[in-house]
């Protein structure tokens, strides 16, 4: 039986979802009127002293703090981390805690975790390689990637080994449940109290390419060193406290691989002991550079502070030399980071390392060191653009939010395509190796590198500092960050087609396979368009179309500043944007974030009206002309063609009054009535009337339909007979009492005769159908019709760096004869 | 019991010999969009596939093992377009043969690469059986989104790795 996925099933499922999402105490139980502008009162949580109605932290706002001291050792040969961890938990909540929950993200890869147990064969589940279910045509299948993953599981013990959970020398009872661990306290922890405990942990580092994580090791078997080398990316690497918040208490929604992290701020003091020839990149500030850096490296770092372009701390040649050998010696690198919500690091002997100082100014963090770490495989692509892109990101984002608050900002090339942590990001783009030993990259790869560095460094703001709850709401960091990376990328080079345009999301939004943006991360059907593109497009429209840049930028910055180093929820964002812009946006959030409606506004018809003067000598003449302008009866026309003569023509000697006075003849009866009408008017009425008659303006009524359901402003382009064009915006509120059809009166000067109307002429609103945006109706050629008319030539994505090495050849001369 | 186990063993087959990529943008799912448009004006069923250029380059590199710059030569562009055409098919019903789609062309537009096909509009076209598995042998997580459109009447499907033929039926 082949799979018959009828869209009807989808529509049905989504319909159920939508109706349940909309269920509320207030219902329209007669007729089909839908209040698209209904305030979000019942939908948003009730404001309280922790989060107020303005969307800002309330007067009793609190959040926990967790400090970590970790002493870790990297066993390169075994690819294993062993560590001691001391945790200080500050209970800033008004509640007494009897136990603490920890997240054990490495355990989510264990075969008995919820994540692993719920991988649907051939369907949804983990981020790793796939499988295929059996059907009529083909047997079940399993990819080599999946086999590799399974074999990695066979050969390695996965997950944490946790021992010595102690406080004040006493063993603490603890319970591990899948990827979570409960530690029972010796006595209840009262509000304002602090609790210290420690534990030892160890785990085997996952091979990123085999398992697909957000970190792990990558092996390079072709390096000159016997056995090759590794790059280690350490993320989600230590047991850490689950969040405890005012709106959910303990956050126990376990890590399943998709919905990322909900974390507490705290201070970190981390020592990592690694092979002595490794270079370590880490969250935080290096505390012992005298122990781990050479005098030359320290000198170069000093020089980098004021350099125009990145300075190499470890050069390409030095890195290449370094990766040829290994060592049994170790070094301990020591980093400290204050007030961060996470801590990640990278270690390898393959790294070259460049740095450039960023003199940000301001009081909080006037100087930031931007740095990149990458192997030869990153090569020239990274040398030129990684560190510069880091600085560009901070420059742009800070203008729209706040000064970058950390002392360093780092980009590391490893096996992860793109992932963010405080002060440090992992980015994947590489050069391509050619048989002649050279390495080049395409323009697309260059764009990818710049784009991904901007995106991941941008995550420092969302969610590392504006600490939104990623586990619940991916869009709160990915959507806002995608919107902002579009701003930053366009400031890098506006000729490159990056960023999200409204048109990019129309194919998704008009489809019937989607869920609302306000869906928990692990349940979202298509994470890319749902949590990245759609919210980014929505914010772009909010900024460019609905609020304008001044109002939007003020409100967006207010949100950022309010929630800097705090934990916002969606309602805090919605409320702040509305409250700070001073514009009711409930309809916008409702439509774009709580429904699956799309934008499709059509212009259906345009009527022309003319003001009656009431003066019968004018109006009757107009009526006569209107009558004369109507087409003659076909019947009469044909009689004329047949040269039929009428009775009247044949009997001209017989006539009366009505043959000389048609039905539009004006008599004094009408003139007297007109005079009386004028006499009865109040002075102000007469003034207004006479002026209107004198100006004789054009009155047009334009009828619109809302076919997509999503209410939006109507953007109009009016074209006049004299060739002039005029644009206007009708605010979305026009739909408030008639969400499906509305009419708009447009008044123009006598000489401005309207000839055509276009809705959304610049494609700014994600309107999914442009065919119905024109009046008079216009045939809009389909994409393929346009292509056939004139095949378009695209922009060039050539690997010119490689092609330029092509040897010049003489053309092949073919003999030609007549 | 034995028979069941036997059948599973027989049915178990290695999928593609191509490994999962080692560089996946951690945050973005690979996705492509296909529009199947009923164009009554031209009397054609028009098919437009949209791919991210960056995705296309990586697929070429991994699938064909060739230089990953499809835009540098028209031959390579054509090779990619051909690849797409081989991974997409439609038919009028479950038992019908695949329609012979005509190649219209391909082009680059901004960050997207488009591939176009068309076929004369079948007399009955309210149901279409569709297959779209481009990229999925290279990226198992690739989702191919297909919109079947006739005016405002739109039906959609998301093709995942194991999907073969899916039927899309326009609203009556």
Automatic annotation (TrEMBL), chain A:
GO terms for molecular function: metalloaminopeptidase activity; peptide binding; zinc ion binding. Pfam families: Peptidase_M1. The keyword Signal applies. GO terms for biological process: peptide catabolic process. Residues 120-140 are annotated as: Disordered. GO terms for cellular component: cytoplasm; extracellular space; membrane. PANTHER family: PROTEASE M1 ZINC METALLOPROTEASE, PUROMYCIN-SENSITIVE AMINOPEPTIDASE-RELATED. This is Aminopeptidase.
């Amino acid at each position: 039986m082949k799979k018959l996925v009828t869209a009807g099933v989808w529509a049905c499922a989504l319909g159920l979802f939508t109706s349940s999402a909309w269920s509320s105490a207030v219902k329209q139980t007669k007729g089909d009127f839908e209040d698209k502008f209904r305030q979000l009162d019942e939908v948003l949580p009730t404001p309280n002293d922790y989060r107020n109605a303005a969307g800002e932290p309330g007067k009793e706002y609190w959040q926990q703090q967790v400090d970590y001291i970790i002493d870790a050792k990297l066993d390169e040969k075994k690819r294993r981390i062993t560590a001691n961890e001391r945790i200080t938990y500050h209970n800033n909540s008004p509640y007494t805690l009897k136990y603490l929950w920890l997240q054990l993200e490495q355990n989510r890869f264990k075969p008995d975790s919820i994540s692993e147990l719920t991988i649907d064969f051939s369907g949804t589940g983990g981020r790793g390689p796939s499988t295929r279910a059996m059907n009529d045509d083909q047997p079940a299948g399993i990819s080599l990637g999946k086999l590799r993953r399974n074999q990695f599981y066979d050969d390695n013990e996965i997950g944490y080994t946790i021992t010595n959970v102690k406080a004040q020398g006493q063993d603490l009872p603890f319970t591990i449940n899948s990827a979570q661990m409960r530690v029972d306290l010796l006595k209840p922890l009262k509000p304002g109290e602090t609790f210290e405990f420690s534990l030892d942990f160890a785990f085997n580092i996952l091979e990123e390419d085999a398992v697909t994580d957000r970190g792990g090791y990558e092996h390079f078997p072709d390096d000159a060193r016997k056995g090759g080398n590794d790059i280690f990316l350490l993320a989600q690497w230590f047991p850490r406290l689950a969040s405890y918040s005012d709106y959910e208490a303990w956050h126990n929604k376990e890590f399943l691989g998709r919905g990322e992290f909900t974390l507490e701020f705290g201070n970190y003091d981390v020592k990592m002991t690694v092979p002595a020839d490794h270079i370590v990149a880490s969250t935080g500030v290096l505390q012992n550079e005298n122990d781990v850096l050479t005098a030359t490296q320290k000198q170069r770092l000093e020089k980098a502070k004021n350099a125009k372009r990145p300075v190499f701390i470890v050069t390409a040649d030095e890195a290449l030399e370094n990766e040829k050998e290994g060592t049994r010696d170790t070094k301990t690198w020591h980093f400290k980071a204050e007030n961060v919500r996470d801590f990640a690091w990278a270690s390898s002997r393959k790294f070259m390392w460049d740095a450039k100082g960023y003199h940000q100014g301001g009081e909080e963090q006037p100087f930031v060191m931007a740095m990149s770490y990458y192997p030869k495989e990153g090569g020239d692509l990274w040398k030129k653009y990684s560190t510069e892109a880091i600085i560009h990101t901070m420059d742009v984002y800070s203008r729209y939010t706040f000064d970058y608050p950390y002392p360093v900002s780092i980009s590391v090339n490893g096996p992860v395509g793109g992932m963010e942590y405080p002060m440090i990001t992992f980015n994947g783009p590489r050069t391509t190796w050619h048989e002649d030993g050279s390495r080049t990259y395409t323009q697309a790869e260059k764009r990818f590198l710049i784009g991904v560095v901007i995106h991941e460094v941008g995550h420092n703001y969302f969610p590392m500092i504006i600490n939104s709850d990623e586990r619940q709401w991916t869009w709160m960091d990915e959507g806002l960050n995608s919107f902002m990376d579009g701003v930053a990328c366009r400031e890098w080079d506006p000729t490159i087609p990056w960023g999200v345009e409204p048109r990019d999301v129309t194919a998704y939004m008009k489809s019937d396979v989607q869920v609302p943006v306000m869906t928990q991360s692990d349940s979202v059907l298509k994470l890319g368009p749902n949590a990245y593109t759609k919210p980014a497009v929505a914010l772009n429209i909010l900024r460019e179309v609905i609020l304008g840049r001044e109002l939007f930028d003020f409100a967006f910055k207010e949100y950022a500043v309010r929630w800097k180093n705090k934990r916002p929820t969606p309602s805090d964002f919605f409320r702040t944007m509305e409250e700070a812009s001073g514009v009711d946006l409930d309809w916008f959030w409702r439509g774009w974030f709580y429904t699956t409606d799309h934008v499709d506004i059509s212009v259906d018809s345009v009527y022309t009206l003319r003001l009656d003067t009431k003066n019968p000598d004018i109006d009757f003449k107009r009526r006569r002309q209107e009558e004369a302008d109507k087409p003659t009866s076909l019947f009469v026309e044909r009689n004329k063609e047949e040269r039929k003569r009428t009775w009247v023509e044949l009997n001209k000697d017989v006539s009366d009054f009505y043959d000389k006075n048609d039905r539009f003849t004006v008599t004094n009866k009408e003139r007297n009535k007109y005079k009386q009408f004028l006499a009865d008017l109040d002075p102000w009425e007469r003034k207004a009337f006479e002026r209107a008659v004198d100006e004789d303006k054009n009155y047009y009524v334009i009828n619109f339909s809302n076919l997509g359901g999503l209410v939006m402003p109507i953007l109009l382009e009016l074209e006049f007979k004299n060739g002039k064009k005029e644009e206007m915006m009708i605010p979305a509120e026009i739909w408030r009492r008639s969400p499906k059809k509305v009419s708009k009166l447009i008044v123009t000067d006598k000489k401005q005769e309207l000839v055509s109307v276009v809705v959304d002429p610049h494609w700014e609103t994600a309107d999914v159908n442009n065919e119905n945006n024109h009046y008079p109706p216009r045939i809009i050629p389909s994409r393929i019709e346009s292509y056939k008319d004139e095949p378009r030539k695209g922009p060039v994505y050539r690997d010119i760096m490689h092609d330029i090495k092509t040897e010049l050849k003489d053309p092949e001369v073919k003999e030609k004869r007549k | 019991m034995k028979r069941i186990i036997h059948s599973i063993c027989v049915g178990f087959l290695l999928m593609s010999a191509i490994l999962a990529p080692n560089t996946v943008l951690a945050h973005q799912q690979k996705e492509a969009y296909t529009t199947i448009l009923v164009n009554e004006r031209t009397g054609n069923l028009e098919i437009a596939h949209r791919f991210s250029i960056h995705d296309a380059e990586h697929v070429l590199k991994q699938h064909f093992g060739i230089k990953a710059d499809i835009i540098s030569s028209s031959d390579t562009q054509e090779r990619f377009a051909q690849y797409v055409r081989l991974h997409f098919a439609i038919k009028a019903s479950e038992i019908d043969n695949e329609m012979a789609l005509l190649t219209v062309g391909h082009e680059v537009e901004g960050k997207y690469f488009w591939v176009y096909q068309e076929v004369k509009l079948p007399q009955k076209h309210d149901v279409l059986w569709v297959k779209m598995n481009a990229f999925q042998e290279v990226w198992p997580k690739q989702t191919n989104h297909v919109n079947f459109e006739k005016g405002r009447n739109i039906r959609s499907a998301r093709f995942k790795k194991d999907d073969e033929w899916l039927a899309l039926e326009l609203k009556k």
